[in-house]
Records
---
Amino acid sequence: PKGCSFITAAFDVQLHHYVYAFVGWRGGQRGYPFSVGVCHTEAEVEELFLRQWECADGLPPMRAQMAFADARDGNRQEEIINLARSLNSVSGPFFWPCLGARSGDMGPKTFRRSEIQGDGSIVGVRSKAVANVFRGLYAIQVNTNHYQQWIHNCLLYREAHSTNSVTFPAALREDQDLFEQLINEQPDRAVDNTGHDDLVKWVAVNPAIRWDFRDVMRYARCAADVYLNHAWARI
């Protein structure tokens, strides 16, 4: 889309497929998803990550500068880390595994960055071990509550093109599956012992509908924050 300075991508890892989203970003923390879909093989993930996307305003083609792949599932974590090793470049573009953190675990931090050891394990946040790590490859722990609240606010309260918003292209207007998934989580709130509103967790609106596209939008936004280290004024 016109005016975008960089692209991030995210892949939600399922048992037999990957759900993905590519998002262009403008100043003012404004996101413009332009390609969403499903692929089935690592080769397709690689092809998408390496793809040069044409720019609507005539600038040279751009590729995603940072991509996240969900490595939360222990059954495929090693597989995703190995994929990241093969696709990541030490100086970028970057392809890093990510893991969602439970609400309340991270306090005000929006993400944590952990190194990955030579055996493929993730160095603990409090660990002092830094030997034998894959240089330039990190695992990102995503503050689930923060980015859930962000996409919730974008979908319910913010106008297109406004600060900290997401604006979808008209070509996706009739994609019912996409938007059903995007709105298929809501906050499950309670009242704390002081009488104030207290977020407990995010729950599915309709358990029969997936929410994978919501996840990849959240991860793509976190990838933008990580790529800029929150220094959005630079663009």
---
Amino acid sequence: MRQLLKWISYILAALVAAVAMVLGVVYWKSNARLHRVYHVTVTPPTIPTDAASIERGHHIAMTRGCAECHGTDFGGAKVIDDPAMGRLYGPNLTRGRGGLPATFGDADWARAIRHGVAADGHGLFLMPSADFSRFTTEDMGDLIAYLKSVPPVDRDSVPLKIGPVARILMLAGKIKLAADEIDHVNLTPAIVTPAITVEYGHYLAAGCTGCHGANFSGGKIDIGPPDWPQAANLTPYEPDGFVRWTEADFIAALRTQKKPDGVTLSPVMPKVFGAMNDTELKAIWMYLRTLPPVATGQR
């Protein structure tokens, strides 16, 4: 019996050592990615100072998900606090205590938003710059103008702590740094006019790809905790109920957080998208109707 217990203890010790070795490799490789330095050339847009442009920048900030991570006062907010995924808070973007340093300039704003790269050159974790990278020059300028006008908030930014599951997902290619996805050398701002057109809808719908996938087929959301519900399929895939929605259904769902059958949308779905104006929502709907049908989750 003692001999058996001894062998069991040896096996358990070997398993613990193997797990520790695997976790060590995961942490080492993921840290290497997190600490990679990106050298990007940044040309900041002209930053307007008139009230209309700043108000338009406010609209962009509130409808593109900025407040979801950084808080409605942009002093920082919780994104995820989960043992598996980690402690992820959007930093304080104001000039208050715990916010941006006095040296943070227009080029730093553009580098972070368009390229997903911090002022010191490292890639920003979970910053959806792949969605923002082709913002028009006007949108980028207006957004920065608004963010620079936000009143100071005294709130210390919570240090980033990335959990083991998030690190494994990084190495598996499920969670990607935007800085790795963006072609920084050949990146050019989009040229599009706000109107109810497929082109404008395509431009705006870039902000939906983080959860719904590049082809909008939905399914498992790789960037979230394992318990997050699947994203809806936004293509006209026949077995999915979305194919039977109308434009009015789509707009009402985003503004009321209710599907046509009365079921509440997933809590993961950002409520701020419902604050888009009629032109924006109708343009997105028009674009989604041009998508080919794709089976749910076949990204």
---
Amino acid sequence: MGKPAAVVLGATGRIGRLLQLCPPEGMALRLQARRAQAGPGDRAADWHVLDPLADPDALARLAAGADSILCLAGPVPGRGPGNGAGEMQDHIRLGEAAVRAGAAAGARVLLASSAAVYGAGSGLLDEDAPLRPANAYGAAKAGMEAAAAALGAELGVPVCALRIGNIAGFDAVLGGWRPGFRLDRFADGRSPRRSYTGVQALARVLGALLQLPDLPGALPGALNLAQPGAVEMAALLRAAGRPFAWSPAPEGAIPEVALDTTRLQALLPFALAPADPAAMAAEWAALEPDMAGR
């Protein structure tokens, strides 16, 4: 009997590359791309070139026999073409395509959503908090969640939307750092505090979720994905040895936004250490050269 298999749609993005560098033990990954992939970082990768929207039959063939489908595909704001509000609707279409493939294969579907679906909400946000996206990306992700959940219910496919918080190294602070970088400073002298996940911790959690027992209700409809506790952005940059300057926080800036991880911790009680800026900075330092393709 072979390894359990997971299809990864949109595997050429940063999270897809992370899963290639830190693959889940005991699971085969089938990686989808729209163009042929080659290069040192893609050695021994099981690539499948197809367009999930233009060729649903090819997607169904790729998913045949798979246990899970992880949909990472979709345009990312600020990077390349496909960032207008209309093109952001591809998130919805891709989520539905993943659910239809899951129905054909008898596989469950995990969708990469985002904490952006909560919009400007402050405090501790659990999965039942109202969704009030403040931009086209968050609105598209919220629309994807709703459409995929409805289609999944119709077709009998378990669907879980992973609302991923900041990822240390993929974010605008540690990942976006440049000389002269500035951070907002609030009246209490602190920088913004947000929910974060280290890159290696993220890979472990995704691998564990893909391999949860296939039981009814094993995965909820939505799941916040972050390490427990909020991280101060200044602490993350200091831990990474990245200098920065201060700017007064603008009016309306939110000091703290944290994702409630109670549901995730109940599912994976041993997989998530509390958020630690030093550990997150070290995880990024270890993987940054390979993530950059050097």
---
Amino acid sequence: NTDLNALLQRAIKNNDYRLATRYYYLLLLKKLSDKKEIDYHKDKTNSEYLFEIQNKQLRNQFSEVSYIYSYVWYGEFPLDNAKFKAVERKYKSILKV
């Protein structure tokens, strides 16, 4: 029930691009769950979600943004505005599906 869009906008406004990337990923999981592409569970891994996605193009896109999310969030990769804009484009593209 958390308003992920509001949290995302706040993170972007605060230039917290790592956190914004996390919120984009959570929004994606929510959308895929709503569309019945995945069965969301907080303890599942990105790989488990990947295997659930039947559409090959969507699976490939999910794989790419999952890699980015893991690299940025768990690898604590710093993002400046330009790098975040590239990441944001990828998330916005897959969220349109």
